[in-house]
Amino acid sequence: MSKERSDALFHLIKSLKKSEKRYFKLSMVNAEEKKFSRLFNIIESQSVFDDDEVLKKDATIKPSQLSNMKAHLYTKILNALRDYNSNTLPNIKIRDMIDHAEILFNKGLYKQCAEVIKKVKKIAVKGGNLEMQLEILKWEKQVLFHTSGKENVARTNDIIADVQRVNNRINNINSFSNLQVKLHSLYQKIGFIRSESDYNKIQNVFAASLPVFVEEELSNSEKISLYNLYTGYYFFLQDFEKGFQYANKLVNLFNKNKALINSMLEAYINSLNNLLIAQNKLLKYREFQATTRELRALNNLPSAQLNENIRMKLLKYTFVHEFNRLFLMGDFERGVKLMERIKPGMEQFISQIDMHSKVILFYKTACLYFGNDNYQTAIYWLNQIINSKEVDLREDIHGFARILNLIAHYELNNMELIEYYVRSTYRFLLKKEDLHLYQKYILNFLVRLKTNITQEELVKRFRALRENLIPLAKDPYERRAFIYFDIISWLESKIERRPVQSIIKDKALLRLSEI
User: Which domain of life does this protein belong to (predicted)?
Assistant: First the structure.
């Protein structure tokens, strides 16, 4: 077994919950299987995988056997996990029942096969699994060849109609999801649209790929895919009001069909995440709090449903949206305290998330420390982005990280670095075709600052910059800048000589009082 395969076995064993380990060990009953149980125990006890230690601890294993034993152990663990999860993961149960139907069919027990197909079809339809339904219909047709009766003509017509219906639904879902993936790949590169050219490009891609449909005639599975598509599309265009409408429709769809939550738990979690994003952008604080409670309640689901993938999603979204709430309220001090408390586990958390999520996390963390006047720590997190080789991923955040980095250096009075960083930022933004009025105003403002400027003149310049920037918040392509950093509140903090978080807190309290 190669090192890569050995590492896979090691990580698989380390990922198991106590109950899963116990189930596996109990399934190893005969003398032959006990060998695998011993090998499992040795690997489980290791902190780093080591073949020599395995051979040393179990003399019954010969060096020539070890590679095959590890490969078989890997398969045995996966088989045990499938059996362990068969009652909690509907798709595993459906696949098992389809396998049973095939076995009965091959035995010539066609009536028994038909009974299994009838039962499994109900489960697949209830869970909305269209691909499985198509597989089941294939076996229905096979059984029909081997059974006779006066209902056969009607049954044949029903099966043909079902196949056509399911195929149409699968084609719709593929069209919706393919378009969603295409848009998401563009979003991961550039972020929110930057120009009319971006807008036209996205509109053309969307219009050319969206199939004709009647929403009322779509199945729940199709609607889930469609609402996800529209939510992402409107987020991309910065139309958060319409994005909110579709995100809300999707969450409501799940809440009206509780069976869907069990069979599509990850999709439900993603729908809550999208709704929270929209509520945050639209400053819907009370709704945001209610949806946050819905998300956190999922941690109380039976442990069998909370696999590692689901736990990681819940942890990530809970973490991100708690910080979004603190941003919304301007409570950066509490956010920094929370960050310091969870810092010991941050390294492991960061290692388990994708690069896109890392870039967002680094930027939000930098903004958190910046808002609490911890500029040096903010620069540390911004440098995680600026020094990254993944400059083609979220080019927008890379650009705004450089702008915020400049402002943080200004706050630390590192005036000798400002001119260098301004030139460097100009080059980056020009290269990425992302130099707009917002960035130009700020860069020009910073480069013209001098150390001997009077306080009165400085405040005057802050006011002038604020007056230049405020109209941009209504521009369809410039306004995205205000999503990344509340520069208006920062300028007001400079003009009024107050901490930026007190400015943002006052604005948040005023919004809440008006609800």
Answer: Bacteria
Residue of 112, 216, 124 lying closest to 162 (CA atoms): 124
- CATH of the structural domain 330-515, one choice from 1.10.3210, 1.10.287, 1.25.40, 1.20.1300: 1.25.40
Buried b (16+ CB within 10 A) or exposed e, 295-330: beebeeeeeeebbeebeebbebbbbbbebbbbbbbb
pLDDT at 468: 94
Cβ contact 177:144 at 8 Å? no
- What average pLDDT does range 360-381 have in this prediction? 95
Helices 308-329 and 265-281: crossing angle, nearest 10°?
A: 10
Query: Which residues, at least 6 apart from 158, have a Cβ–Cβ distance to it below 8 Å?
Result: none
pLDDT band at 59 (very low <50, low <70, confident <90, very high): confident
Q: 């190669």: which residue's tokens?
A: 2
Task: Say how far apart CA 515 and CA 513 lie, in whole Å.
Answer: 6
Do residues 322 and 276 make contact, with C-beta atoms less than 8 angstroms apart?
Answer: no
Please, are residues 75 and 112 in contact by the beta-carbon 8 Å criterion? no
pLDDT above 60 for 1: no
pTM of the model as a whole: 0.83
Going by C-alpha positions, the residue among 53, 73, 72 that lies closest to residue 63 is 53
Boundaries of every domain in the chain: 3-85, 90-177, 330-515
> How do residues 8-41 score in pLDDT, each as one tens digit?
899 999 989 899 999 999 998 887 888 899 999 9
